[in-house]
Amino acid sequence: MTVERSRRPWIVSAVFGAALLLGHPSGLIATTIEALTFATPAQETRYRSLVAELRCLVCQNQNLADSNAELAQDLRRVTYQMIRAGRSDAEIVDFMVTRYGDFVLYRPPLTPATLFLWAGPVIFLLLGLAFAARTLRSRFRAAHPTDLEGQARHKVRRLLDDDP
After folding, report:
1. CA-CA-CA-CA torsion sign (48, 94, 104, 33)
2. What does the DSSP assignment read for 1-46?
């Protein structure tokens, strides 16, 4: 009887641990995997390409393929349905942009509203280079005086030496 009692805490711990793992959100990941069937391999390739190019609006730093957000799952389902319905990639992207704006695209088009997004990195790079050049130039001048400064110092020394 003592042998059975010593095994019971282990069994209870194992059952309790399994219940925790099944109730934990990471245990539910297997249930959220989508099983999609396509008529042709080309449709599957188009689907994978589109969900990789469209941004998850909830996560913002993930594409639809990588996100587990509910909205991303819905957008993947809509993309799948539109591909199965025979819509082109441009029609699907236009639908998403019309509904969610240019933010849904990882590469937004060049428009007046997105001009700073495209030009911003170049502007900041040029400003950084100008600042670095100015700083280096001032340090170089301080370390190596120009000939005019050296000539002026020489004249001052001669004048001071000549004056009794």
Report:
1. negative
2. -HHHHHHHHHHHHHHHHHHHHHHSGGGGGGGG------SSHHHHHH
Query: What's the CA gap between 91 and 56, in Å, rounded?
Result: 18
- At 54, give phi and psi (nearest 5°): -95, 140
pTM above threshold 0.85 = no
Q: Which tens digit of pLDDT belongs to each residue from 55-100?
A: 888 887 888 888 889 999 999 999 999 999 999 999 999 999 999 8
Cα separation, 61 vs 136, in Å, equals 37
CA angle 122, 123, 126 (to 5 degrees): 85
Q: Are 34 and 73 in contact (CB under 8 A)?
A: yes
Task: Note the pLDDT of residue 31.
Answer: 39
Helix axes 70-84, 41-53, angle to 10 degrees: 140
Helix (H) / strand (E) containing 117: helix 115-143
